[in-house]
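User: what does the whole thing look like in 3D?
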Amino acid sequence: MSIDIETAARVAKLARIRVDEDDLPQLAHAFNDILGFIEQLNEVDVEGVEPMVSVTPMRLKRRADGVTDGNMADRILSNAPDAREGFFAVPKVVE
Amino acid sequence: MMTELPKLKIAEARDALRKGELTSAELTEACLNAIEGAGALNAFVHKTPQIAQEQAAAADDRLKAGGAPDLCGIPLGIKDLFCTKGVASQAASRILEGFRPEYESTVTRQLFDAGAVMLGKLNMDEFAMGSSNETSTYGNAVNPWKVDDRQLTPGGSSGGSAAAVAADLCLGATGTDTGGSIRQPAAFTGITGIKPTYGRCSRWGIVAFASSLDQAGPMAKDVRDAAILLRAMCGHDPMDSTSADLAVPDFEAMLTGDIKGKTIGIPREYRMDGMPDEIDALWTRGREMLQDAGAKIVDISLPHTKYALPAYYVIAPAEASSNLARYDGVRYGHRAKLSQGDGIVEMYEKTRAEGFGEEVKRRVMVGTYVLSAGFYDAYYNRARKVRTLIKKDFEDAFDAGIDAILTPATPSAAFGLGEMTEADPVAMYLNDVFTVTVNLAGLPGISVPAGLDKQGLPLGLQLIGRPWDEGDLLNTAYALERSAGFVAKPSKWW
Amino acid sequence: MLDLSYEPPKPKVIAGAKHDWELVIGMEVHAQVASQAKLFSGASTRFGAEPNSNVSFVDAAMPGMLPVINEFCIEQAVRTGLGLKAQINLVSAFDRKNYFYPDLPQGYQISQLYHPLVGEGEILVDMEPGIARLVRIERIHVEQDAGKSIHDMDPAMSFVDLNRTGVALMEIVSRPDIRGPEEAAAYVTKLRQILRYLCTCDGNMQNGNLRADVNVSVCRPGQYEKYQETQDFSHLGTRCEIKNMNSMRFIQAAIDYEARRQIALLEGGGSVVQETRLYDPDKGETRSMRSKEEAHDYRYFPCPDLLPLEIEQGWVDDIAASLPELPDEKKARFVTEFGLSEYDANVLTAETVNAAYFESVVREAGDGKLAANWVINELFGRLKKEDHGIDESPVTPAQLAGIIRLIKSDAISGKIAKDLFEIVYTEGGDPEVIVEERGMKQVTDTGAIETAVDEIIAANPAQVEKAKQNPKLAGWFVGQVMKATGGKANPKAVNQIVSAKLGL
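Assistant: Here's the predicted 3D structure for the full assembly of 1093 residues, as structure tokens:
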């Protein structure tokens, strides 16, 4: 499997990371190095093997249905790059 | 005297504090001075002297009252991956620039509840992605060990923690380990680091890299200190669904040094092609030391070892690509300056391009790729199946009566900063070849300094234990430590 | 339980310019789980709070935050599954659905793609008495809701409120068994009714607590039957998904518009592109949602912060044992036990409060049909006039039962009963006492009636003659007698006596 520049661009888009056009060949190259390395997994016979779900199996913890958190909008917003009138502000989203 | 205090081990300082021979304020002051003088190591990236002094004063009061816990008054460094309330916590990334959590991670809360003193935040690879501490937004951390003109890596990702402990800037430090990030830097700097069983330490409040692999653990000057720190760090946390509801034993009390009748496995697959002779020789010496201490040594096979690193480089980036999606410039951290007409997508793309370093971007994109439509089964699901097989290899060994497994910790001693950066990323990944299996299998693993290479740089051996049996593992490590008698220290050049 | 027999409705047929077309509809309903706290955090689910106040660090996806599941939300989803006669999966798991959106702080939604909590079930969708469609449920999974983006507060910015982020949703996915806009609305109505019976979702569509995504395709008559035989989707047309509708009216209008759009495309020689669309109620149109299309690769994978959810059969059995009587059972019982028409039974079982009210009335008054008549026509009619719900009714079931008892014992006439009802509604009081105190009792004493009839006959000889010619005019005498007795005379008795005295 070889990653071309177009695929590299698509993946960058999907990951929401801007990559300059000039850097795409190098990125595709790095992908190919890594994926080439990963390809070794194809040597393993995994017939009938269950994919690992949790490395230390235990019963999933549950919480009771009670309100124990919240009411701290100031602390939720305290690190926001742009907070206005109690909201997080972001550039206009067009649906 | 002041310059000697930071060289104390935790156990020694604890005893002196309890006897009143020393105050936490003095000890803390000495550490803060040592840190001030160690800028060249770039280990501490956010110093918190005021918090340290306050905590030390409170600890001294508590010590006076009597019955204080082991860590009361002990100055520690905290890896930047831990969220510490009101203190910059950036995971060494530009994308978390300015972020000050409104909350305290469970592990650091437990440490501070036990009276530990925070000296500051420690350098690391960005988002714990790296094996040389060269991906940090703060710049490289530097190994206090030096044998020529070159500056050496302290390893990674917990490079700042390793450098700080090895250089006696603090008495111990927290680390995290996703593929070897505690054990490899410990080995590179001649200190002890243990990654406990997955689920021992709460992950709550620790910036996530790869959730199914991440574990916190201590980095310390010896096995006893690691045992003391580990006991305070781990324990059940109802806020982490993967944290185990198990009692935490007194690990220190389990350090008898008696390993008679224990069976130690030597996995043949860890003898890699092109492994330096020195590493091989050290491994053989370790085997002899454990044998001399009364353990039975058995050659074993862990047949899927070879596939651990490729499986890791599917699973870890896949999880990371999702875990790091929250760094989007909306609620905290860096947001890119936008141009006229830029919308939300441009904000995401520019913010993440500016905020993440190259290695992080690479891994996030690889992870995105392996999870994308059409590749999930070929990569991610296959890697999870291989992970099942790797875990089973260990289970088979333990079922056959093996108590612990001895391997080298790293394939080499510390290398020079910048020496690996030009190589392809895979060459750097090979640093984790001996440690990554342990994360994939969720097992406890400890790195113990066992000797120096011919240049005079420390080398470590790794012991891998049964799940939840950190006490027994620490005791085996303690026996190895006593036999190895490693006492070398870097000579101060910084 | 008695099953009411039914036949399926005819599929909706739309005549295109060239041929007839049928619709095939599948629905994904997002129902907010009725719970105090969110699915994975301890923040409140309360609607209408100050922005970002029902938000924990987990909901805001602060670094290092981890989810811990709210057990009650799981219980509610299991209860819902049982209410839809669905299979409950004792092992399910949570997956991450990855996409970027400002109101999705984690950058992923925790959902259940690969192993949902609830498997196949069914809903009987009533259309009219005797006509119903059995719609198959494919699955129900539990997932996190997103927050809210507000686009109209600032010309250049969108504002994000995370109060809703992380609230538990049940996504209830149907098979493509729905065959028309009216059926689609009826499906949502029935589902909502069941959820409200179960108390697992309040069904408040206005607040967005129940929203529907509708998958619409069109096909030529006969194709759907081929699909039914083979379960092979290739017999059906390409579908479009209309997202996020929260009104029955919009659902119908959107489906109708979308079907016609697709038909026009196909008849014009084009083809339907599978895509996500949005309904614009102002324009009455659906339009493509480009923003969703761009990143259509959700990269689902098991959430590594959570382990598989294993539940015990005993726990499921306990929940099953605590299920309330559901609408279909209740309706059937009302028909058999009280002799109601299916229509009346439908009306009375629409909401549990109505049914409970009705049953209290019957318990005291005894006559199911009469009680149904009074509850539906008088009480509901009166309440509706003032836009009140039954929980606001000034007339208690005991009072209404009192009125009905008075009618049954012939103590008052139906007409007087209506006056009495109005008095009880506006003034309150015990109906029996009111009737007694205000002399509203019906006169059944034939002697008194005869006297009144005699007086009127005597006073109106001309009318008597006319009535003898045309017996229909006897009614005039009845009216006069009723007037003279203040409406209290038993109308049946008056009729008889008037006829006898006039020799009719």
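In plain terms: Chain C touches chain B through 30 residues (CB under 8 Å). The mean pLDDT of chain C is 93.
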